[in-house]
Amino acid sequence: MAADLKDFRGKITALTWCYLEAEHRVSGQDQSEIVREIMHEWAERKHHAAIEAQKLLEAEGIAGNIREDQGVGR
Prior knowledge:
Strand content: under 5%
Number of strands: 0
Structural class: mainly alpha
Distance between the termini: 37 Å
Order of helices and strands: HHH
Helix content: 55-70%
Largest sheet: none
């Protein structure tokens, strides 16, 4: 079963649009599918980095809410 998709609309630069359109023309994929794949890969990298950061924080004995520990308001 495929995951539910969230609606997102945003503006992109002309340069970005040209490359997105070129990718669409050579691959036949919809622009939304291309962007979804790019964003999903980006989110996966961020997620993996966050997991690694958490491991490092725990190894260094830094726990809890980092913003509160540093006196940063919400």
